[in-house]
Design brief:
With 583 residues, this protein is of the alpha+beta class. Helices cover 32% and strands 22% of the residues. The chain has four domains: 119 residues, Pleckstrin-homology domain (PH domain)/Phosphotyrosine-binding domain (PTB) (PH-domain like), CATH 2.30.29.30; 82 residues, Phosphorylase Kinase, domain 1 (2-Layer Sandwich); 218 residues, Orthogonal Bundle (Transferase(Phosphotransferase), domain 1); 111 residues, no CATH class. A nine-stranded mixed sheet has the order 1-5-4-3-2-8-7-6-9, covered by helices on one side. The protein has a five-stranded antiparallel sheet with strand order 10-11-12-14-13. A two-stranded antiparallel sheet has the order 15-21. The N and C termini lie far apart (98 Å).
């Protein structure tokens, strides 16, 4: 009798739903929510009458009297909206331009929303949020501050243009990898995500808004931190990594930019930016990636690009810990290429007098974090169990000076120009940018494939600022050219013949006094002939480019074309600027 009754009601055959005759409900133990189905909201005309909605990872089912009446397979094309009205509440499901409505109670709709937002995209962003202000801008994303219309709280919204993603299968994999990991993560020391929307032109990620800014911003302004503050931050960071690693997730891009503060007054921090993160048990979306100066040696020296694990994050923790207590980076250089080469060599010296002044437990934990062999390297939980953060009153007040800030200030005052890389002129705010490596290949005598993928623009913090990075002492005209070229959002960068001639001329004058057979002359010959003369265009690596123009300081990009290494425009300007300074 039950099946006959259901069959008689199935003649309506609603949109989106697949009608199921005489299908026994085997999922009765899961949570169910009372509701009715209709193809329209105004007027609402129930197709099957009263029933129960269930949600799982594969499908949404509508059941009656112990039998499944209809179901919807959860595919990529399925999206949903939540409609809260005074008279009734509705779950709106959309697929291939067709819509269906499920009438539910407010509490039931809230519960279904919590389940669905971890599986599929929502549609109703403008109905749910009001954009308040602009926060930051990257090459392929924009961050805004938005207020939720239901709870009146502020959230950070990262928007990605769909045409940037849809046209490239790899880009789509990268975005979905980040979203899927964010959906899985639920820990107070890792960036919190709330909802994921899909509009006609954008994907929108709603994340917690961290008002305190990034650790990099604090380092740029601060003279240093007490040992108590540093250990407290590192304890929280390791708690976040312990959680991630227990869930087989490695972050692969720990650095000061990606540590955010809850507010400006406290030292409560979270790990942010899951753009390069990876589940070690799944196919790697990125293989070799990270940020120069913080990358684990097993990533740089990896043969397959996948033969490393979660302990690569611990090496990055050691680099960060060292940076904070010593006031300067572990690996230094005049450019990101030099920093990367020092990072690859991984010659670590912890014998300095200043380092030996630190408490023994801190020296030991940093040394164990920086073990080159990952098998000998300490884990996040083991680092926490060492209780390195337990300090006596005198140790707590030990002040670690920020020597890096002093160095930058000194260079600037003595004529070594440190330029702040600027964003698009339309952006009144400053956004901290970073250069990251991607698909490095074997770093032997050459450095291949330095790239700038999406980075800290996805760090949801306020008042973001740009880094101090080395540049040339260029003339005013050159500086104007650089400003015009920054963030031009093109897929190629013109290198004019005039700039090539200037570069070659400066090199010739520089080495004029050298003997013809000198090693320096030989290096010059290799550099300018024949590759430099052949440069007419430099193609940027599209999807991962955070700084759209390699002219930007600190964003030196090397593009590998077979066995030929091409140096882009910034390299030419650097050498020209140095020559002008010498004059």
């Amino acid at each position: 009798m039950q099946s006959q009754t259901i069959t008689q009601n199935n003649h309506a055959n609603p949109q989106v739903w697949t009608v199921c005759n005489n299908c026994k409900d085997y999922d009765q133990d899961t949570v169910q929510f009372a509701g009715q189905i209709s193809d329209s909201k105004d007027p609402f005309s129930s197709v099957f009458g009263e029933g129960f909605i269930r949600v799982n990872q594969e499908k949404i089912t509508f059941s009656q009297q112990g039998f499944v009446t209809a179901f919807i397979k959860i595919l990529e094309q399925l999206t949903y909206s939540t409609l809260y009205n005074d008279d009734a509440c509705y779950l709106k499901l959309s697929k291939f331009g067709k819509e269906t409505f499920v009438k539910m109670s407010p509490d039931a709709l809230d519960q279904v929303d919590k389940l669905l937002k971890n599986i599929i995209f929502k549609q109703d962003f403008s109905d749910s949020y009001e954009v308040i202000s602009f926060v930051g801008n990257g090459s392929f994303s924009q961050v805004t501050l938005a207020k939720n219309k239901r709870d009146s709280k502020n959230y950070a919204v990262k928007s990605i243009q769909k045409n940037r993603v849809v046209q490239n299968e790899q880009s789509k994999k990268e975005l979905m990898n980040e979203i899927n990991l964010l959906r899985r993560i639920n820990h107070e020391k890792v960036v919190k995500s709330y909802e994921f929307f899909q509009t006609e032109s954008q994907y929108k990620l709603v994340l917690h808004y961290y008002e305190g800014g990034s650790l990099e911003q604090k380092l740029e302004k601060s003279k240093g931190f007490t040992l108590f503050q540093i250990c407290d931050m590192m304890r929280q960071i390791l708690q976040g990594f312990s959680y991630l690693h227990q869930n087989n997730i490695m972050h692969r891009d720990l650095k000061p930019d990606n540590i955010l503060f809850f507010d400006k007054e406290s030292f409560d921090v979270v790990i942010s930016d899951m753009g390069l993160s990876q589940d070690v048990n799944e196919n790697f979306v990125f293989k070799k990636c990270g940020t120069p100066g913080y990358v684990a040696p097993e990533i740089l020296n990896s043969i397959t690009g996948t033969d490393y694990g979660v302990k690569s994050d611990i090496f990055s923790c050691g680099c960060l810990f060292y940076r904070l207590v010593m006031g300067q980076p572990l690996f230094e250089g005049k450019s990101h290429v030099e920093v990367l080469e020092e990072n690859r060599k991984c010659k670590i010296d912890l014998s300095s007098t200043e380092f030996k002044k630190l408490p023994q437990q801190i020296q030991k934990v940093i040394e164990n974090m920086l073990q080159i062999n990952p098998e000998k390297r300490i884990s996040a939980q083991e680092a926490l169990d060492s209780f390195f953060y337990r300090l006596n009153a005198e140790q707590q007040q030990y002040f670690c000076k920020n020597l890096q800030k002093a160095k930058l200030h000194q260079r600037k005052n003595t004529g070594t120009q440190i330029e702040h890389t600027k964003l698009n002129s339309q952006n009144p705010h400053k956004q901290r940018q970073s250069v990251q490596i991607h698909n490095l290949g074997m770093l032997n005598n050459s450095l291949n494939g330095i790239n700038t993928p999406k980075g800290s623009c996805s760090s949801m913090s306020s008042n973001n600022s740009l880094p101090n990075t080395p540049t040339s002492n260029a003339t005013n005209k050159d500086k104007q050219d650089v400003r015009k070229s920054q963030y031009c959002k093109q897929t190629s960068l013109e290198v004019t013949e005039q700039q090539q001639k200037k570069h070659i001329q400066s090199k010739e004058e520089q080495f004029k006094s050298q003997r013809k057979n000198s090693p320096t002359k030989q290096r010059f010959s290799k550099e300018v002939s024949p590759d430099t003369k052949k440069i007419s265009k430099i193609k940027l690596l599209d999807h991962h480019t955070l700084l759209d123009s390699p002219i930007n300081t600190g964003a030196k990009k090397i593009i590998s074309d077979g066995n030929k290494i091409t140096f882009p425009k910034k390299s030419l300007q650097e050498d020209q600027g140095k020559h002008n300074t010498a004059k």
